User: What shape does this take?
Amino acid sequence: MALPKLPVTNELGYYDIRMESIGGMGANLAGQILAEACILRMGYNGVNFASYGSEKKGTPVKSFVRLCDPAQEVTDNSPVENPHLLAVFAEQLIGNVPITQGFARGGVIVVNTTLSPEEVVGKLELPGCQVFCVDALKIAMEEKIPLNTAMLGAISRASGFIDPEAIKGLIKDKIGKRYPHLVEGNMKAFDRGYNEIKEKNYCDLDKYPEVPFHRVEPELGYVNEPIGGVITNPGNTILKNHAASRVGYIPLWHEDLCIHCGDCDLTCPDHCMVFEKQTDDKGKEMVFMLGVDYQYCKGCLRCVSICPVDALTEEVETDHDVNKIRADLRRVL
Assistant: This one.
């Protein structure tokens, strides 16, 4: 079988893919599988690597895949700044992380979301491009496997040239050796991601400009670093936002079931349970729970596990408007 020609390349001859995700969603592994499938099973030359902080799980993660003609050597190992295909694994990154930087007009974007392509264009203010949407989280929950497999199916479909059978064959080999009972679920998830994708071509759209890539440079260096190891920017502040750390689930508070015992507050690592002193119907002053402040909630769900009366339940975040049901911690500080 002849090797499909790369649909587009940059001035160096590379087709670049960037995956924007949150640690724990499997974007790093997805990048490895995608690169290996393209290189070992399709015949391209290429490379894969990732970028993430010291605490990978729950923090923003980027995975990169760079492909080129088999006769060309890969001499560029720098992060992908101008992707031809951009894959967004977590909808909650939108508005919290500048995920579209460097994404040029005419590119392809794949988003794990319940939104329509039209809604995604407006929410991300995308330049003219091809938009693909898939509810990978729903597929993952129903098939009981991580969502990266469904995203790989969607990416294969959106690319227009990556052979889905090459990826499926590699997944079977990787998973089948250690977890043969998970092969069927992953194959179903991949096929569903491939087939259940919603797509629309907005390449003629000229409403939003391209956002140039901006590499963040540290504010302090050897010239202006304060002496004595002074920490000028503490990590825990009222402005901290953990929304991008959640991987699709939130604890939902049910006021009618709550007994205001405070167990959830004891186990919460980020103190995002909101309590306030109030007077009960007998005139006695007590502390009552008002809800969860989702600005500080990273979705660990420890509160759900410890609640003795099921007043906190695990729910899919996209089924709720967290801004409307959020209890504001600042009102009681």
